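Design a sequence for this backbone.
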């Protein structure tokens, strides 16, 4: 994958990791614009290539009464407005093959959720749009198995593909990141580390996923040291009241400090 081919991507000559960041889900226009503006301000200052992330719908929820979205078309139009207002690329996840063509009209990168990365019809539909495809590694898959998911995209005529590690199941209610997987997956495609979903604590008795946001910088530092190509994180100005994944999101106020530290580490690693 050539990141410079993503529309409106900036700072590609900075030798930094790239960043996929934004809220878990699009809860409304004001919140999306507020988060995008802040992340862009920080990434421009630190010269980090930035792609704004937001789910236009949440299909994989623990409970039937969990928040799933504000309406597909409404959320997709907000993603387009973010892109046009701030001149940044956008990414959203899709859950059905029919989502691919529709979402591709609004965003620059299509993301395949970890639970669905073995769904051939979905992966192929995303690939055939010609958009960049971000394949999230299944929590149940080995790093080496991701070469087959990557190959599905390539065999569909699209070489613009990347992999995102979001942790591996460790027992029933915890995740763990196996950093041996980063160099393994980088053999197949540029590799991103999802530093917030890797800290999820799923399968809670309450039906609401928990998390360890206090460990975000620990995981992120390890990823940068191990030459990950990009980082993925979800951030919100009020994680406690976010409508999804608030338990493991980074508070927006902490973003600049975190990224400043990570950029300093990357500069050191680049000199080795």
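Sequence:
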């Amino acid at each position: 994958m050539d990141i410079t081919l993503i529309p409106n991507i900036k700072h590609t000559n900075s030798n930094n990791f790239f960043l996929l960041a934004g809220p878990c889900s699009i809860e409304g226009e004001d919140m999306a614009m507020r988060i995008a503006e802040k992340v862009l301000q920080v990434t421009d200052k630190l010269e980090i290539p930035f792609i704004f992330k937001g789910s236009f719908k949440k299909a994989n929820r623990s409970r039937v009464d969990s928040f799933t979205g504000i309406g597909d078309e409404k959320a997709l139009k907000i993603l387009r407005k973010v892109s046009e207002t701030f001149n940044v690329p956008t990414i959203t996840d899709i859950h059905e093959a029919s989502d691919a063509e529709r979402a591709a009209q609004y965003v620059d990168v299509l993301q395949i959720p970890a639970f669905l990365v073995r769904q051939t019809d979905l992966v192929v539909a995303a690939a055939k749009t010609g958009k960049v495809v971000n394949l999230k590694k299944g929590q149940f898959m080995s790093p080496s198995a991701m070469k087959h998911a990557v190959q599905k995209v390539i065999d569909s005529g699209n070489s613009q593909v990347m992999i995102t590690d979001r942790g591996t199941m460790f027992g029933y209610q915890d995740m763990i990141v196996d950093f041996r997987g980063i160099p393994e997956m980088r053999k197949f495609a540029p590799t991103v580390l999802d530093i917030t979903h890797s800290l999820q604590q799923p399968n809670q008795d309450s039906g609401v996923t928990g998390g360890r946001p206090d460990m975000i910088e620990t995981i992120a530092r390890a990823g940068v040291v191990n030459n990950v190509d990009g980082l993925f994180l979800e951030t919100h100005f009020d994680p406690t009241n976010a409508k999804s994944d608030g338990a493991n999101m980074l508070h927006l106020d902490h973003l600049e400090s975190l990224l400043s530290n990570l950029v300093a580490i990357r500069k050191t690693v680049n000199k080795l």
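The radius of gyration is 17 Å.
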